[in-house]
Write a structure and sequence with these properties.
This protein is about 40% helix and about 5% strand. It is mainly alpha-helical. The longest helix has 18 residues, at about 65-85.
Length: about 140
């Protein structure tokens, strides 16, 4: 299977530790984190994705806000520069151990955090990164050859 993610969620998965907007949101995100950890690939999408799904039934879901669309644009640009890969809808990515480590290093030094400005989770994510990403739910191991 494939996990559908919008661009800024490429950053969110780096620090996800099981906290979220609601119990349904965290149950869904935990399942996505497990799938990413097992190696499922990512399909980049425009707008609401698999992470957003539990929020879409609520009144005025923030997933549709212009500020979130701007967050996607900023994240896509930063991740594209970091990985030297196109980060746009329709592109498939493998978040392997090396890519995850590279993205976390860049995140921890602020290299891919322009999209995080104004996000209510920014402080928590910054603390997780500063602490070395303990207890994060998305984990990939390097497979020996």
């Amino acid at each position: 299977m494939t996990i559908r993610l919008r661009a800024h969620h490429l950053l969110c998965v780096l620090t996800y530790v099981g906290k979220g907007y609601s119990p349904a949101f965290t149950v869904n995100y935990d399942a996505i984190a497990q799938r990413l950890s097992r190696g499922e690939d990512i399909l980049l999408v425009s707008g609401p994705d698999d992470v957003c799904a539990p929020l879409l039934d609520g009144p005025e879901p923030h997933c549709l806000n212009e500020s979130v669309i701007e967050r996607d644009r900023l994240a896509a640009r930063d991740v594209e520069d970091l990985l030297a890969l196109p980060i746009q809808p329709g592109v498939r990515l493998d978040l392997d151990a090396a890519t995850l480590a590279r993205m976390r290093r860049a995140f921890s030094v602020g290299g891919v955090r322009k999209a995080c400005g104004g996000c209510e989770w920014n402080e928590l994510c910054g603390a997780i990164a500063a602490g070395g990403f303990p207890d994060t739910k998305v984990q990939r191991s390097v497979v020996p050859r």
